[in-house]
Amino acid sequence: MKDAFGLPQSLLVLGGTSEIALATARRLIARRTRVVWLAGRPSPALEAAAADLRALGAEVRTVAFDALDPASHEAALGKVFAEGDIDLVLLAFGILGDQAHDEREPLNAVRVAQTNYTGAVSSGLVAARALQDQGHGSLVVLSSVAGERARRANFIYGSSKAGLDAFAQGLGDALLGTGVHVMVVRPGFVRSRMTAGREEAPLATTPGAVAAAIELGLRRRSETVWVPGTLRVVMSAVRHLPRAVFRRLPM
Amino acid sequence: MSADTVSVTGWGRTAPTAARLVRPRTYEEAAAAVRACGARGGIPRGLGRAYGDAAQNAGGAVLDMTGLDRVHAVDAAGGTVLCDAGVSLHRLMEVLLPLGWFVPVTPGTRYVTVGGAIGADIHGKNHHVSGSFARHVLALELLTADGEVRTVLPGTPLFDATAGGMGLTGVILTATVRLQPVETSLMSVDTERARDLDDLLARLTAGDHRHRYSVAWIDLLARGAATGRAVLTRGDHAPLDALPARRRTRPLEFRTARLPAAPARFPEGLLTRTTVGLFNTVWYHKAPRAETGRLRPIPAFFHPLDGVPDWNRVYGRGGFVQYQFVVGHGREEALRRIVRRIAEHRCPSFLAVLKRFGEGDAGWLSFPVPGWTLALDIPANLPGLGPLLDGLDEEVAEAGGRVYLAKDSRLRPELLAAMYPRLDEFRALRAELDPRGVFVSDLSRRLAL
């Protein structure tokens, strides 16, 4: 069960090698979390992540999960929920793709969309149903500021996150009153493996900062969390810029 | 019998979870509800005054017992009452005071049910004299997991598991309670100020035995030399001859007044260190330095907050946490350290009370043990509150003390066994009595009770 501060005792990470997710898991293990499930494609990296968290004192298990195989989601997540309540599901998988390359390789672009959007639709619905059955829990969805308004430089990724974001908001509204809390997290540019070698955007942040914002959002039962928080104001301005101006922004 | 899926919280309004709220109106309906609980079980709930998650059951059933609210029999000569578990102490006072009887124990609110009073084994300002509520229970009827009703008598393991058992042994249906005789419905109250914590402890130690009721409001925002300054309030039921002539014609009159309820959407963030600090300073200085024999009505002495319905809303959407612990006599150093840490963290608490407990009772998970108990309320969104309270838990456990489950919403489960040494017996009895785990609450899940 979550405590008065929204801190979970059990955590399921979808996308078990995500740096943001692991930073969040480390933070939560230091507080109340004792049981962690890392769901992802079986790999040495997934096992290494599990071992790292185990060293912090949590009981950590891995489970095979592939965002690109929606038909398997029911079984994969069902196995986890059958073992006991999950207080927090962190939907953290996602790929950035390579915009310039993907524009010429539509199948690659579709892969980005299927991972980030349809994979999340499927696993998000499965997780939401399980949380609803247990009458409590939070579903934290890692969206992105890129989904707020698609940019020329990464609109394939951006549009997939826009879809994910809209889906998660709607899901949150659908689950109102069911005891399940859905929180959409919109980080800006996060310095991580995923963005390594890319030019940093303004207001860049770190996985640790996103983890801290998630902990705070859980305590406040927030519906939307921006990281850093100033992005809320910045993006509300950006959202209303005329297209012609937005297009010319150096970002 | 109606049943709706609703979002449920405790009085602190933190950690909402959804449950099927069932309102049985007869014992048969209650038994049917228990039999129909399903995989996620059920838990009885009274008036929802437990601060944390004791009367919540995510995904399962919550049995709202307030529909079972009949007072069956009052023995006005012998001083006992037989009533349903859903009867509130407020109702009992309305019925009993005109007959010259008072409830044996009342907490800071009248709006708790008899079932809840036993389930949490509540205490009041008279703990040093009268112990906790279950000490005054002569018998109770318990609906157990098999759907059967058992009569449970004091001195039996099932009674001791049920007193303070947070509703996890079964649903209390009725109770027979021994009452306190009173000549009037007024309290004779002595008030004095204590300039710091040591002064307070000394005054409580020296004077408690002279009064049936004793409690101290403590200013936890005061620092330095004033750390732990307090206002002691002690009282006794006023004898008839203490009343002024015009009141002597209606000595047992019980009247309660309630202000309009706090608005549902109270603005967030009014209770800050500044506003609460100001309140506390005024409250301390406006209390008389020393006053004796002032006559006060029962609600004003015992239940001032009941005058504002839904006062818990003043903490806004974020809700609040109640922290109550007890440490034994001889552990004053731990108490001082804890008070200092709270004061240094600047917790904006305006409802902090310190009390000296008397002998504990037999309930396995009953909270009171002889010593000092401090209760305080803190807005849940205060930065750093979680780690602060975790630190205090360590101090409390180290000093052989414990925290109160009826108020808890955040204890680290690992500390529970150290705080409640009879936890294993409780678990064993539950495993035998309720092998399918019919009775379960968010609290029992969180702490693995």
From TrEMBL, chain A:
Keywords: Oxidoreductase. GO terms for molecular function: oxidoreductase activity. Its EC number is 1.1.1.333. Transmembrane segments: none annotated. NCBIfam families: PRK07904.1. Belongs to the short-chain dehydrogenases/reductases (SDR) family. This is Decaprenylphospho-beta-D-erythro-pentofuranosid-2-ulose 2-reductase. It comes from Streptomyces tagetis.
Automatic annotation (TrEMBL), chain B:
PROSITE patterns: FAD_PCMH. GO terms for molecular function: D-arabinono-1,4-lactone oxidase activity; FAD binding. The keyword DNA-binding does not apply. Keywords: Oxidoreductase. GO terms for cellular component: membrane. Residues 14-182 form the FAD-binding PCMH-type domain. InterPro entries: ALO_C, FAD-bd_PCMH, FAD-bd_PCMH-like_sf, FAD-bd_PCMH_sub2, FAD_lactone_oxidase-like, Oxid_FAD_bind_N, Vanillyl_alc_oxidase_C-sub2. It comes from the Bacteria. PANTHER family: D-ARABINONO-1,4-LACTONE OXIDASE, L-GULONOLACTONE OXIDASE. This is FAD-binding oxidoreductase. The keyword Oxidoreductase applies.
